[in-house]
Amino acid sequence: MVHNATTGRLKTRNLVQCLSVLTAVLLGSSAIPVDAKMLKVEKDELKLGFIKLTDMAPLAIAKEKGFFEDEGLYVTLEPQANWKVLLDRVIDGELDGAHMLAGQPLAATIGYGTKAHIVTPFSMDLNGNGITVSNPVWEAMKTNIPAGPDGKPQHPIKADALKPVVDAFKAQGKSFKMGMVFPVSTHNYELRYWLASGGINPGYYSTNDTSGQIKADALLSVTPPPQMPATLEAGTIDGYCVGEPWNQAAVFKGIGVPVISSSEIWKNKPEKVFGLTDEFVKKYPNTTLALTKALIRAAEWLDENNNANRMEAVKILSKPEYVGADAAVIANSMTGTFEYEKGDKRPVPDFNVFFRYNATYPFYSDAVWYLSQMRRWGQIADQKPDTWYDETAKSVYRPDIYMKAAELLIEDGEAKKEDFPFGTDGYKAPTAEFIDGITYDGKKPNAYIDSLKIGLKAGQKLEGTTVVGN
């Protein structure tokens, strides 16, 4: 009889578990190995997708540190060409799950773009992005930015400094173009938020025009993350919003200047999630729990002891099968610093957050924020009641799975109860920690949308290229 490699591994593993338990019993020890509590997973061989960005780190760490195998899972990680291909392959079942943009499960579930019920039991990280502009744009912006005591530009840099540059482009009959990674990406929404906070309209979407450039002062378009620096260098775009290491790559190549990090636009903003089809979660509940357990452990490892493991993580991520960028470029942000202009490296200890601040918990309020931005810019064509936002968030974000995984880790001795938000209703407290100081309350999305100066308001919609309604 021929056995495949996985069957052999599992038999060996089961034998080791049995011998370990037997030894503990014979020695009168109560320290039964954690493996003895391993879930009976319904599917043990999995293929998971990712895009080559540093925030895929929990997946790489869960594999490299053996956290997947600790849960009886044998995982293949496979880089994907772009976010659309990644989502399509999860929906088609070619991938069992994937590193996803926070907006992807929400957009798919409500039918914006591809229609499919995607859920997430795990938020992969906070922060992690930046906005970079070309050298000529930076030189023009600098005259509008006050200097700090050290003579360097004062941060955070608001889009107010960019507005005169965009206005000058318009006066010359030129378009100001910026790249972002996907229409429902966090990058699209935070770039739009930053621009709008400085009086620059990033444009609207409509049912007939999905370019997102209706009435735009700055034209935003999709560029795959690894291609951002080259596209900027070629002059095709004047700036972009992307995750690491592609902002720092512009600094290393001397072709652009990151002007702001995403944590300065919205402090501790949710970034990526781990996405699965609802069908997968229902068919393989224990496998889903096991995946979530392994990812929580990986996230905790990435942040533990004040980021002590980050340099080891950098070496892992620099491998060609993961991010494949130079370790020095990845380290610039992963180790708690961020370089703006060449030589202007500043401490940003929370540039990448993987576990602290309950980063891994899938908060409903995070989902509602992304839905509010879809409505603000016309991707959700008509006004929805606050209850719709709540119900949609709860159909996609699955903190029930997350907390069950957390409870199992606590039982296993692999986590502490105080590290998880037991007792939460899934909504964070209202916060004004945005670049414009406007308060966001996830339980009142319509009031929040109406409080924003640029964007659709209650009762408004696009008819052709015209905003109509109250």
Name of the CATH homologous superfamily of the largest domain: Periplasmic binding protein-like II
Low-confidence residue ranges: 1-36
CATH 2nd-level architecture of the largest domain: 3-Layer(aba) Sandwich
Helix content: 40-55%
The tally of beta strands, per DSSP, is: 16
Quick gist of this model?
Keywords: Cell inner membrane, Cell membrane, Membrane, Transport. The protein is α/β, with parallel strands linked by helices and 470 residues long.
Please give the structural blueprint:
Elements: H1 5-26, E1 45-50, H2 57-64, H3 67-70, E2 74-79, H4 83-92, E3 97-101, H5 103-110, E4 118-123, E5 126-127, E6 129-134, H6 135-142, H7 163-171, E7 176-180, H8 186-197, E8 218-222, H9 228-233, E9 239-243, H10 246-253, E10 256-261, H11 262-265, E11 272-277, H12 278-283, H13 285-307, H14 310-317, H15 327-334, E12 337-339, E13 345-347, E14 352-353, H16 364-376, H17 386-396, H18 399-412, H19 445-451, E15 461-463, E16 466-468
Parallel strand pairs: 1-2, 1-3, 7-8, 7-9
Antiparallel strand pairs: 3-11, 4-11, 5-14, 6-9, 6-10, 12-13, 15-16
Helix pairs in contact: 2-13, 5-17, 13-18, 14-15, 16-17, 16-19
What would you note in describing this structure?
- With 470 residues, this protein is of the alpha/beta class.
- It has three domains: 37 residues; 235 residues, Periplasmic binding protein-like II (D-Maltodextrin-Binding Protein, domain 2, 3-Layer(aba) Sandwich), CATH 3.40.190; 137 residues, D-Maltodextrin-Binding Protein, domain 2 (3-Layer(aba) Sandwich), CATH 3.40.190.10.
- It contains 19 helices and 16 strands.
- The strands form five sheets. Strands 2-1-3-11-4 form a five-stranded mixed sheet, sandwiched between helices. It has a five-stranded mixed sheet with strand order 8-7-9-6-10, with helices on both faces.
- Strand 7, helix 8 and strand 8 form a beta-alpha-beta unit.
- Helix 2 crosses helix 13 and helix 5 crosses helix 17.
- The longest helix has 23 residues.
- It is globular.
- The N terminus is likely disordered.
